[in-house]
Amino acid sequence: MKIALIADPELPVPPLLYGGIERIIAMLVESYIKLGHEVSLFAHQDSVTSAKLFAYPGQKSRKKSDVLKNGILINTELFKNKYDVIHSFGRLIYLSPQLPFGIPKIMSYQREPTISQVRKVMSIAKKKSMVFTGCSGYISNQILPYAPSYCIFNGVNLDNYKFEESIPFDAPLVFLGRVEPIKGAHIAILVAKATGKKLIIAGNIPSEHQSYFENEIRPHLHDRITYIGPVNDVEKNTFLGQALAFLMPIEWEEPFGIVMAEALACGTPVIGFNRGSVPEVINNGKNGFRCDNVQEMIASVSKIQEISRYDVRKDAESRFSSEIIVQQYLNLYISLINKNIKSE
After folding, report:
1. Domain 158-319 belongs to what architecture?
2. What pTM does this model have?
3. What is the pLDDT of residues 134-171, one digit of tens each?
4. Angstrom distance (rounded) from CA 9 to CA 91
5. CATH number for region 2-155+321-343
């Protein structure tokens, strides 16, 4: 197949540090090409890819002039050359010129969908040419009443994550994510203090949340609770693999949280709040524990060695491996192409 993949313009594919969506796109691109498909990627100019790269002239998704310039780049190529499928992880507006035509189009949401936009798109799109995916049932089910919508989880290349079968009970708890209130690093600190466990916090601090770090995180740092900053993919493998458990104390409806799949790939159980996609990822008592409050999270830490790290890794292999995710997307492409052929 000849496949067009569309990213947002802010971060390169793959990202150097933070950037879950761009990491998924990179995984798809390289997997597709290894399978013999031809791929064009619309993305940041610093992207490193085996695909044919169309570098965006604009770098801001919220700047109208940049959206216009990027949209012209994308659609000039799509109208100039024939593609079998268009798959966008970027702005929905980029697909607008393609909506009246029969070429199969997929919009993948890694964030809360804007239903008004979904409904508008479906009123314009040629019948059976447009579908949506969500990175969790939490996302895809919001779209389903208004458009064809499928749940395809985010995944990871398991070759990049070493399975650590045996971890000492004094191994640290870890938190990895943006250091901002909704991600819950401050709650991870409460859990570490209550359980007497070491805690290592990793992740970037958004400039707008520097005061949160200074007020809620830094005062609690010492030899047993540490902050190590952002980590790259190599560092992440060691960081997650040597952990007793990964804490996911989110205070928002997380669409997926690819770091959960990364932790599971290392054999590290996940302890998370029962919000967003967490109930879909954590099989309670099998690959981690779901909690409704801080007290339950504290209690779960003491039960963590009841979980087999071997079973955790096997769960990652069966649900979140790159091979599984890639094949689910390819199956969707083929289904769309066949429906399009029948409708012509």
Report:
1. 3-Layer(aba) Sandwich (3.40)
2. 0.92
3. 999 999 999 999 999 999 999 999 999 999 999 998 99
4. 9
5. 3.40.50.2000
